[in-house]
Design goal:
The chain has about 200 residues and is α/β, with parallel strands linked by helices. The protein has eight helices and six strands, in the order βαβββαβααβαααα. It has one domain: Pyruvate-ferredoxin oxidoreductase, PFOR, domain III (Pyruvate-ferredoxin Oxidoreductase, domain 3), CATH 3.40.920. The protein has helices at about 15-30, 75-80, 100-105, 115-125, 135-140, 145-155, 165-175, 175-195; strands spanning about 5-10, 35-40, 50-55, 70-75, 90-95, 125-130. The radius of gyration is 16 Å and the shape is globular.
């Protein structure tokens, strides 16, 4: 059985851990072995959160530099920071709506130019799917559903060893019922955005 390695990076509070939990549940529903590890930043909100998910038979939850098959970034600068985990065959999905770090907000830092950021990622990887996931989450009626938009995009690229139905059933099990309708709408919008990205 092939092993698929996925890195998800975000800023605290963006829902990375919930998205990872949904993917883990989808793998269980599909009968796919998986392992997951997480790295949490210093701050509960605002610090970096990174999840490593390995689908298939693997001996370690560590994804070394150059090993990721898929990188999903909830925040563009964090996507760029994690691109060393990718290789020339990797697929990268990133949200293009930045969350400015404190240092930028107080004038002590400069946020990367989004066009240059995308060029750098494209030069290192096989494919980049980049769009404003925050805008699509708002369209779905739930500004906090950026994670579900990106789950939709991730599912559309058809790298993971389970189906759309597995992911949607996992969403029903892992997300709060009062948000399920907007989460499913956000998922569908992300799926279509990735489809249109070609």
């Amino acid at each position: 059985m092939d092993v698929t390695r996925v890195i998800i990076v975000a800023v605290g509070g963006q829902g990375n851990l919930l998205a990872s939990s949904v993917l883990g549940e989808a793998a269980l529903l599909a009968g796919m072995p998986m392992q997951m590890s997480e790295i949490h930043g210093m701050a509960q909100r605002g610090g970096v959160v990174e999840s490593a998910l390995i689908f298939g038979e693997a001996r370690s939850t560590i994804i070394s530099d150059g090993e990721a098959d898929l990188l999903v970034g909830f925040e563009p600068a964090e996507t760029l920071r994690a691109v060393q985990k990718c290789n020339a065959d990797s697929v990268v999905i990133t949200n293009l709506a930045p969350l400015m770090p404190f240092t930028v907000n107080i004038g002590k830092g400069v946020y990367p130019d989004l066009a240059q950021l995308q060029d750098l990622i494209r030069k290192k990887t096989a494919r980049l799917i980049a769009f404003n996931a925050a805008k699509l989450a708002n369209e779905a009626g739930n500004p906090l559903a950026v994670n579900m938009v990106l789950l939709g995009a991730l599912t559309q690229v058809d790298i993971l060893p389970f189906s759309v139905d597995n992911v949607k059933e996992a969403m029903g099990r892992k997300t709060k019922q009062q948000f399920l309708e907007s989460n499913l709408k956000a998922f569908d919008l992300g799926f279509r955005a990735a489809e249109q990205a070609g």
